[in-house]
Amino acid sequence: MATIEAKSATLPPGSRLPSVVQTFLFLVARRQTHRYLRRRFGETFTTRIAGRRLVVTLTRPEHIRTVFAGTPTIYHAGAGNAILAPVMGEHSVLVTDENEHQRTRKLLMPAFNGAALRGYGDLMAELAATDADGWPTGRAFAVHPRMNAVTLEIILRVVFGLGEGDRLTELRPRLRRISDIGPLTVLGWSYPRLRRFGRWRRNFENLQSVDRLLYAEIADRRRVGDLADRGDVLSRLLTAGGGDLTDEEVRDQMITLLLAGHETTATALAWSFHELARRPDIQRLAQRAADDGDEEYLQAVAKEAMRRRPVIQNVARMLTRPTEVAGYHLPAGTIVGPSISLVHQDATLHDDPDDFRPDRFIGKQPESGTWIPFGGGVRRCLGAGFSLQEAAAVLREVLTRYDLTPERAKPEFPKPRNITLTPSRGGRVIATPR
Ligand code: HEM
Question: Are 433 and 133 in contact, with CB atoms under 8 Å apart?
Fold first, then answer.
């Protein structure tokens, strides 16, 4: 994938609809629109959104691999996430690029490596068990809100390292409100003048209260004598690199981990239960794995749910220079977007892609570029291992206790909610004690 200086731009084929119509379709019906464009224009296509910005969608693994392996100074991911900066903060690992991104990511990584994850296992299992004990039985309910509550609790306790107490009680509902980010709320982040009114004022005041509580927690935590022995992500971050992150930098990463890690994992779990409830044969295998503590199979259930029902539809990189991608000479400023949804549904890459088959992931890794729920390269999701371990813990605690049936046989459809695609009715199931 060479950088080109002198060649003139060539663009993949794409829709000729006005940019404003394409933007609307991108916001409200991206999945269906992308499927149509893939059929109509082929494996690589162009759309124009938000003031004529060029977005080139990629669906071939070989092209996606080269984008993920591309030079970080050319392929900017942070720039594409800039809309999140007002809440995540300017230092967030998600919104920065190049040196600042590399430095922060390096400081965060030890908190997500294998040894650190093993240390989180017991607390994850305990919190998952407490939730599973409280599942309603014999009547239909939506799993997604429950999963949102349990993944928030895991972030608060394992990532923020908060113990029971006033600060946790005060932060819990406020953090829940922060992650409820509808498109209207996001508008207020980009137009600060709106913060004087209604929902935007409440949203802004909530964020200020969260900041006050978080800065107080950071100050208290810096003073504890046993910081180096504490295992939670916040404590690790305060000691990382000799503790050279400022309070503001630490705050930005914590809010980022909350927003990136909470609803995403909840959604993957809601889809896992949605699928298992409709496939008694697979559910029996998963229950046996839960009884035997077979973590590989339980993780495979979550992986297959993420393949069949992607939590996030695509990732994005903005080109800082004219660059050749997928055989086209693209101008600087173009967004290249590997499409998670289209790759996961491609019958040339996945046998019978509509079938829910966790054993695709047993004893083998998917070929590179064909299973990309966590993106890739230097921007690959930092919490991928964390979320799979967490998903397996929740699945284990639920499946050892209950049989699941769907409220209705008809599958729910993927509906945009915040940054994810959730089951349209929240994943309604009926749990019966085993
Ligand atoms: C099923 C659950 C999850 C899914 C589907 C998911 C998906 C993603 C995706 C698609 C990206 C962008 C990758 C790219 O641009 O190549 C990402 C980035 C990120 N995720 Fe996740 N994520 C999940 C859970 C988590 C969790 C649990 C955490 C942390 C507790 C987390 C933290 C992050 C961070 C910090 C980044 C930014 C990485 C960077 O820019 O260097 N995610 N995630």
Answer: no
HSE toward the beta carbon, residue 203, CA cutoff 13 A: 25
Cβ 382 under 6 angstroms from ligand 1:
yes
At 4, is the pLDDT very low, low, confident or very high (cuts 50, 70, 90)? Answer: very low
Ligand 1 in reach of 381 Cβ (< 6 A): yes
Atom of ligand 1 nearest to the CA of 256: 35
Distance 384 CA to ligand 1 centre (A): 7
Return the ligand 1 atom nearest residue 258 CA: 30
Structure tokens at 263: 């609803």
Residue 387 CA to ligand 1 centre (angstroms): 9
Residues in contact with 322: Cβ distance below 8 Å, sequence separation at least 6, in sequence order: 3, 4, 5, 7, 9, 329, 330, 331, 332
- Rounded to two decimals, the pTM is 0.95
Does residue 258 line the site of ligand 1, with CB under 6 A? no
416 C-beta closer than 6 A to ligand 1: no
pLDDT at 386 over 90: yes
Assess whether the C-beta atom of 148 lies below 6 angstroms from ligand 1: no
* Residue nearest atom 17 of ligand 1, based on CA coordinates: 381
* Structure tokens, 132: 């599973």
Residue-wise pLDDT for 80-128, tens only, equals: 888 888 889 999 999 999 999 999 999 999 999 999 999 999 999 999 9
Alpha-carbon span 178 to 265, nearest angstrom: 16
33 alpha-carbon distance from chain centroid? 22
311-332 pLDDT, tens digit per residue, is: 999 999 999 999 999 999 999 9
